[in-house]
């Protein structure tokens, strides 16, 4: 038999198996991928298919209100009709214009405000929008092609250049074709465009009538995005009283300040939210603003809202209860105004007098009971003399205050060891080489005296000799030169700052100033002027903090205007529940030996007794103590630019006081700058101070009798 042929293996089954295995692997990968997509991205793809979108809108709430310490309303909200527009669908300009035109047929914009805001550029853009065919003809095709070629790599720059060229081609004749309805529509259209997607923007909130509201409500289907709401305005129950301190709130048109945009947006504000722009309104913005209502709107693939869900109901802003007593505030302002006018128009040499300030404060808590300031000025429209609120000047303007600082100077002398209680120094004319004579205000003071008499009768020389001793120098003979240790300047100023002089008081208001320090410390004689309040400048709020530090035994208390934070009142409640009660804050305590501050308190009582410079208070039943001040200064007011250097010399007058002297319950500072230019003149610091303190105790006694 021949050799058997070898049987060949068929390769097809192997290939089939490989193919099947490969297909198996691919299907397995596909199943795994589908499972992954279903589990991880299922909701997102489902949402994409259904084309639904969640939009969260924050709705503004009423701002918190402001009350005085007795519960009287100072700043409240007054509701008013308003019309809003919300660009829900990111409408194109033509669609927005159509809606604006429909709305223009119903409402009339404020011609004095809204129509005047329309610029020539606005008119040109609007003319182009409503006349697209005519506008297109203004740039021939050949010129347009050249423009495209020039900006072929930058379509954005091309469009910008095209738009600018087109605007330039719109003529005055073209703009004259715009009708009154077109201009009304344009005013509304501008407001539509100034809003943000999904955020209600107020189109009109002044003079919106109930009839307009009713017609709009009946035609909302023709006005997509338009709605009617209740807006509010701040109402000031006492007119201009304290207005400069209360501050202002922005309008919905202005919204948040552009320079602080990033800060506000980071806190969840919208650009058109109304915010506090200045002083108390700004200082306590976080308290007053409230918590916005949050609503989630669900939109379908047609961009229609199909559902909504309230995420949080929001809450009105909390209310502020101030430390101010408005009844007392009004009485004090009346006194300032009367005495300011009486002095201005009743005496010679008072041509620069235009302002006066008074602060009353609880020396133990720092609660500011009254913060008053008045300024004489002219009405911009009528040119007539008016009295304006200038309460803010108590912290934003500073002056040489004169002898009121002498209590701090005596205590500085004690601390530096250059005098002790009852130390005797000679009051005399100090004659320094190549310098004017330095002396006290009256030759009757010349002779030996102790610290109490120096305070009572306001000896300049006594204080100057303390300052020289701190500078390791003394006056021994007429015509001598002075060699003062430069460290004396810092020693005196640092000591003064512990009383609140020359430093910010810490009051809860922005933009408080610290005052100005005299710069020419190389002249030794200037140290003597520093010791009597005629070199550095201080604010009236610093003076009342200093008076309180003496009154309460050496504790520098932070002044404050906020007494309590309360929830918004509900129903018939006058005030809501207390959220926070503000506590006193001690900034520092004077480091004094026993008896030192009591010695100065004794000197301050003597000031208000026979022979003292505060004799107007003699016999006052409330037992006052304090210190008067007169400073020879240079005028630095509104008329300063009318004069060359140096400006006219003027007299600043001040007063610090507290009462009752044995158990003080109120401290006061009065400051009247630029009173007169003559050698002698009136004392409005004393007349204002006496009348104010009398009124304080009169109102207190009347309240106790009620």
Helices and strands: which structural class?
alpha+beta
Largest sheet: 7 strands, mixed
Strand content range = 15-25%
Assign a percent range to the helix content. Answer: 25-40%
Radius of gyration: 38 Å
Summed over residues and divided by their number, the pLDDT gives a mean of 87
Number of DSSP strands?
Answer: 20
Number of helices: 24
Low-confidence stretches: 1-7
Categorize the overall geometry: elongated
Q: Kindly report how far apart the N and C termini lie.
A: 146 Å
Task: Give an account of the 3D structure.
The chain contains 24 helices and 20 strands. Strands 2, 3, 4, 5, 8, 15 and 16 form a seven-stranded mixed beta sheet that branches. β2 and β3 (73-85) form a beta hairpin. α6 packs antiparallel against α7 (155-169) and α17 runs antiparallel to α23. The protein is elongated. Mean pLDDT is 87; it is low at 1-7.
């Amino acid at each position: 038999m021949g050799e058997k042929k070898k049987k060949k293996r068929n390769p097809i089954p192997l290939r089939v198996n490989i193919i099947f295995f490969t297909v198996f692997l691919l299907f397995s990968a596909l199943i795994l991928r589908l499972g992954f997509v279903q589990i991880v991205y299922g909701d997102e793809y489902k949402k994409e298919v259904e084309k639904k979108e969640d939009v969260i809108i924050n709705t503004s709430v009423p701002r918190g209100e402001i009350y005085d310490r007795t519960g009287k309303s100072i700043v409240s909200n007054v509701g008013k009709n308003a019309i809003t527009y919300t660009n829900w669908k990111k409408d194109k300009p033509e669609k927005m214009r159509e809606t604006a035109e429909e709305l223009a047929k119903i409402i009339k914009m404020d011609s004095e405000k809204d129509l005047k805001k329309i610029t020539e550029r606005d008119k040109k853009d609007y003319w182009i929008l409503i006349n697209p065919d005519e506008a297109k003809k203004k740039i021939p095709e050949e010129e347009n092609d050249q423009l495209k070629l020039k900006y072929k790599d930058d379509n954005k720059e091309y469009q910008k250049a095209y738009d600018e060229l087109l605007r330039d081609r719109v003529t005055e004749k073209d703009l004259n074709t715009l009708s009154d309805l077109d201009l009304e529509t344009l005013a509304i259209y501008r407001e539509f465009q100034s809003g943000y997607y999904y955020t209600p923007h107020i189109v009109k909130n002044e003079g919106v009538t109930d009839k307009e509201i009713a017609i709009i409500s009946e035609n909302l289907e023709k006005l997509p995005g338009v709605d009617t709401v209740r807006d509010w305005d701040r109402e000031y129950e006492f007119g201009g009283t304290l207005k400069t301190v209360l501050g202002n709130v922005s309008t919905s048109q202005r919204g948040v300040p552009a320079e602080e945009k990033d800060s506000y947006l980071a806190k969840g504000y919208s650009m058109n939210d109304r915010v506090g722009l200045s002083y108390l309104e700004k200082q306590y913005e976080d308290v007053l603003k409230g918590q916005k209502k949050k609503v989630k709107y669900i939109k379908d693939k047609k961009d229609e809202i199909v559902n909504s869900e309230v995420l949080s109901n929001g809450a009105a802003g909390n209310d502020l209860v101030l430390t101010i007593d408005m009844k007392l505030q009004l009485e004090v302002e009346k006194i300032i105004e009367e005495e300011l006018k009486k002095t201005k128009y009743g005496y010679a040499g008072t041509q620069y007098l235009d302002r006066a300030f008074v602060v009353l404060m609880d020396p133990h808590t720092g609660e500011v009971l009254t913060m008053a300031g008045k300024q004489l000025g002219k009405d911009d429209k009528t040119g007539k003399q008016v009295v304006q609120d200038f309460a803010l000047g108590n912290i934003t303007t500073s002056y040489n205050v004169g002898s009121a600082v002498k209590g701090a100077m005596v205590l500085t002398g004690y601390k530096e060891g250059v005098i002790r209680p009852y130390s005797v120094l000679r009051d005399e004319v100090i004659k320094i080489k190549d310098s004017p004579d330095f002396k006290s205000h009256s030759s009757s003071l010349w002779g030996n005296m102790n610290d109490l008499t120096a305070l009572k009768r306001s000896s300049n020389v006594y204080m100057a000799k303390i300052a020289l001793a701190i500078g390791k120098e003394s006056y021994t003979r007429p015509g001598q030169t002075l060699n003062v240790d430069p460290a004396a300047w810092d020693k005196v100023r640092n000591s003064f700052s512990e009383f609140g002089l020359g430093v910010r008081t810490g009051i809860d208001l922005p933009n408080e100033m610290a005052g100005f320090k005299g710069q020419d410390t190389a002249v030794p004689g200037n140290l003597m002027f520093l010791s009597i309040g005629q070199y550095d400048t201080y604010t009236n709020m610093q003076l009342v903090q200093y008076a309180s530090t003496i009154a309460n035994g050496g504790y520098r208390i932070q002044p404050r205007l906020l007494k309590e934070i309360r929830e918004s009142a509900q129903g018939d409640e006058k005030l809501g529940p207390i959220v926070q009660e503000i506590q006193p804050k001690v900034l520092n305590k004077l480091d004094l030996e026993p008896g030192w501050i009591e010695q100065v308190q004794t000197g301050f009582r003597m000031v208000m007794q026979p022979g003292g410079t505060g004799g107007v208070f003699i016999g006052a039943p409330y037992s006052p103590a304090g210190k008067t001040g007169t400073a020879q200064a240079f005028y630095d007011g509104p008329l300063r630019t009318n004069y060359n250097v140096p400006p006219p010399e003027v007299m600043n007058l001040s007063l610090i006081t507290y009462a009752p002297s044995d158990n003080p319950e109120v401290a006061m500072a009065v400051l009247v700058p630029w009173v007169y230019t003559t050698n002698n003149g009136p004392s409005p610091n004393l007349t204002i101070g006496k009348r104010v303190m009398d009124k304080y105790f009169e109102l207190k006694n009347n309240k106790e009798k009620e």
